[in-house]
Write a structure and sequence with these properties.
This protein has one helix at residues 2-96. The chain is an all-alpha fold.
């Protein structure tokens, strides 16, 4: 009876060892898949960071250009106002001139 029990116990333990080996293989495959997914995600994060940095740089450049253009617009608007004022003055002078050329 002891031998019989020993053999039964041995078979059960061998079966359990095989089950554990299968579980280990499954876990190792899952680990490899997870590591691959992590690598893909890390590469994606790196691309997104690069794109974000490029966008920020582009945004800064656009803002700088906008400020320069707004400054130039103000300057040109002032110049236009001065020209219009001068035009008005000249038109009034012309209207007040004697009719020598007419």
């Amino acid at each position: 009876p002891d031998y019989q029990e020993f053999m039964t116990l041995k078979r059960q333990l061998e079966k359990e060892i095989e089950n554990q080996k299968v579980k280990l293989e499954v876990q190792e495959r899952e680990k490899i898949n997870t590591e691959a997914q992590i690598s893909l995600l890390q590469a994606q994060v790196k691309r997104y960071r690069t794109q974000a940095q490029e966008s920020a740089s582009t945004e800064e450049e656009v803002s700088k250009q906008k400020r320069l253009l707004q400054k130039e617009l103000r300057k040109k608007t002032e110049e236009l106002g001065k020209c219009e004022d001068e035009k008005s003055i000249l038109l009034r002078r012309l209207e007040n001139r004697p009719n020598a050329n007419r």
